[in-house]
Amino acid sequence: MEASNSVDVKRLHAKKIWEYFRKNGEGTKRQVSAETDLSFATVSTICNAFREKGYLMETQLSGEKTLGRIPTPLTLNAERIVTVCFDLTKKGVIVAAVLDAWNKFLYETCESYDAAGQIHHVIDCCTEIYQQAILPRFCEENIVGVGIAVPGIFETDTHNIVSSEIPLFNNQPMRDLFREKLHKPVYIDNESNLCAAAMRQPDREKQLLHDIIYVFADAGLGVGVVTGGALVTGSKGYAPEICHIPIGNPNLKCRLCGNYGCVESDLQMEGYIRKYNLNGDSRVEDLAAFSDALEKGDGIAKKVLEENVRIMGSLLSILNNMFNPSVIYIGGETSKFFPEHSEALYHAVEMRAIAKERTMPQILVDADCGKTVLRGAAEMVLTRWVPET
Description:
The chain is α/β, with parallel strands linked by helices. The protein has helices at residues 6-24, 29-36, 40-53, 119-134, 174-182, 191-200, 263-267, 269-279, 287-295, 299-323, 342-351, 356-359, 369-384, and strands at 26-27, 56-58, 74-76, 82-87, 93-99, 105-112, 143-150, 153-154, 161-162, 186-190, 212-217, 221-227, 230-231, 327-331, 362-365. The protein has three domains: 6-76, Winged helix-like DNA-binding domain superfamily/Winged helix DNA-binding domain (Arc Repressor Mutant, subunit A); 81-198 and 372-384, 2-Layer Sandwich (Nucleotidyltransferase, domain 5); 204-366, ATPase, nucleotide binding domain (Nucleotidyltransferase, domain 5, 2-Layer Sandwich). The chain has 13 helices and 15 strands. The protein has a five-stranded mixed β-sheet with strand order 6-5-4-7-10, with helices on both faces. The model has no long low-confidence stretch (mean pLDDT 92).
């Protein structure tokens, strides 16, 4: 956020003070002034305005008697600032949640919609959840914005969703459609970017992560990259794209581009099913059936997983050398297959790492990626919100 006039300067100062309280939880006006390099008078004026709005409240001091006047610390009133988030990454399913200023879940619900219907049906279902389930529970004034997760790319120049695994969403201006219905600031992005944003700021007790990668292997395959503290998106929102890196099984034809060997063809959910059905006498209809076959010791299922572990290892090796992250996360429905193979993944990355004794990242499986998607959607809203003064 850049300041071009006195109003923008005040908004910029308000944003810095809001970020201080979101990071630290509480502080005196002098502490805030010292940390933000703003004058005490500026901090005092804005903090007083925040108190009137209910964003801040005075911290209750202990009953011990002290000499002299003790500055009263101020505390962020996290439940006064809430976000509404919709996870639309599962076909036919809407997960809605309300989170506070520290991304704590206050409410969550799940509804289904007709995946063969029209895009307006999805928008209307979300609007109904917002009006009938959320507004009766939360003051509309406290809702600072809406964050939406989709399986696809938000094209920044057209505002359309493209390359989505849910055909209903393709070439639809979903952000603008939601804004017309909800009358709130609306932000939209794909699940891998949102997961990376969520993991960038895991919680107030941990250090902010500046260089991370989040590979999301679910209905599709995506990656979110944070480098130098900033999310990598490219000029129009397409970066970084990994689906068509040609390191996959050369016998699998990509359903998007028509070529063979695209890594998404292997590592997306459908890839496990296709590969099993191509190599075995029996068939599986979905990932749950593949998992059952794997648990029963099915030889074909084991071979499919072993090949996909090798392919995932190669992909992580490429990403590690390109972006030099401190942590690599794996999320999505297929991530459940990887905890038992973490050593193999680490070895694949280590084999090709430059200065491996200094550049090896942690490789972690996100067992609660559904929550991570929603926390990322909330983070997307909160990083763009500027509190009123």
